Amino acid sequence: MTTAPAIETVGLTKRFGDFTAVDQVSLTIERGEVFGFLGPNGAGKSTTIRCLLDLIRASEGECRIAGLDSRRDAVEIRRHLGFLPSDLALYPNLTGRETLQFLANLRGGVDWAWVDELARRFDAELTKKVGELSSGNRQKVGLIQAFMNRPEVVILDEPITGLDPLVQLEFHDLMREHAAAGNTVFLSSHTLSEVERVADRVGFIRRGRLIAVERMSELQEKALRSVTLEFAEPVPAAAFDGVEGVHTVSADGATVTAQYEGSMGPLLRVATAHDVLSLSSATVDLDEMFLQFYRGEVEEADARAGAPAQAGGASDPAPASSPAERA
Ligand SMILES: Nc1ncnc2c1ncn2[C@@H]1O[C@H](COP(=O)(O)OP(=O)(O)OP(=O)(O)O)[C@@H](O)[C@H]1O
Ligand SMILES: [Mg+2]
Fold first, then answer.
1. From 72, 99, 105, 191, which residue has the greatest number of CB atoms within 10 Å?
2. 40 near 314, Cβ under 8 Å?
3. CB count in 10 Å sphere of residue 292
């Protein structure tokens, strides 16, 4: 085992014809990290992952896994890697267990007591034919195969989508345990909320460009909160102009909603100059907040891609504009 980063891309670029799906992405992921790779549909998540695994060839740049070159050392890398593709294809006539046995024979080094433990934790149905499983239960077989040889680096393309909440929690625990043992988990997702409890860091890709990488703890620290105040009589939004920590304020008669960061104190002092009837507070959705922080970068990525400016973002639906299958 080397001390090289678990995953490294340098100037990774992938073009399909004259369309750039991944544009100069440079990313370093350390050992022991759970890294969330976020972006809307068509952002370039799967393309980045396919380049990392040498399933497709990068147009420019370098990819390394555990210090090994994705192209040159593709075979050696497989020994250190667990992978779940977004479009997992399994033999429909094999049972879950037969599928895992088949894959274990290819890879070697599988501890069946560990496989049984994973199956139990995920409540996986390994005796049914894969073709007869529900999509969530099929996904569990995919997750088990990704972790079954306790790989140093696990790359998972949208693993959470389709799992029920209890299985999601179990899966979160598994990822944390795996990382705590010094391994690395790289997972893609559409939304921050899906990975916020499990990721150490998140990177946000949009139209092929990596526009932000943030430590989850720092994001949570600067999380905006929202407070709704009911007054005895109408209070104008302007009453909160310039109050420390306050980002946005809207007033609707006697109801005022404000988003703020840090302490609620300054906001409260202004509010209590009026007759406050009630107050309710909530955390602003992290996805929304993330986009507020990176509005400039989002607009720049959109402008570079020659795309019309779009509202929303992390979870906004795909601009179905990409030239399909022009490889
Ligand atoms: N083989 C291909 N030929 C042409 N264009 C492609 C090809 N593969 C991907 N693309 C384009 O590259 C862009 C990025 O696609 P990618 O699959 O990486 O997105 P994604 O972030 O994984 O999205 P999703 O969340 O929908 O899975 C898209 O515009 C897609 O149409
Ligand atoms: Mg994808």
1. 99
2. yes
3. 15
Domain parsing of the chain, residue ranges: 7-220, 224-283
Ligand nearest to the CA of 320: 1
Please tell me the predicted confidence (pLDDT) of residue 323. Answer: 35
pLDDT for 308 equals 59
Q: Please name the CATH architecture into which domain 224-283 falls.
A: 2-Layer Sandwich (3.30)
Query: Considering only CA atoms, which residue is closest to atom 7 of ligand 1?
Result: 325
The predicted structure's pLDDT at residue 307: 67
28 vs 265: CA distance, rounded Å: 39
| pLDDT < 50 stretches in the chain | 310-327
Mutate which of 16, 23, 188, 315 for ligand 1? The one with the most ligand atoms within 8 Å of its CB, which is: 16
CA 37, CA 154: separation in Å to the nearest integer?
13
- Ligand 2 centroid distance, CA of 190 (Å): 9
For the record, the structure tokens of 276 come out as 């406050």
DSSP state of 88: -
What atom in ligand 1 is closest to the CA of residue 19? Answer: 5
The structure's pTM equals 0.82
Q: How far is the CA of 43 from the centre of ligand 2 (A)?
A: 8
**How far does residue 325's CA lie from ligand 1's centre (Å)?**
9
Q: In CATH terms, is domain 7-220 a member of 3.40.50.300?
A: yes
Buried b (16+ CB within 10 A) or exposed e, 250-263: ebeeeebbbbbbee
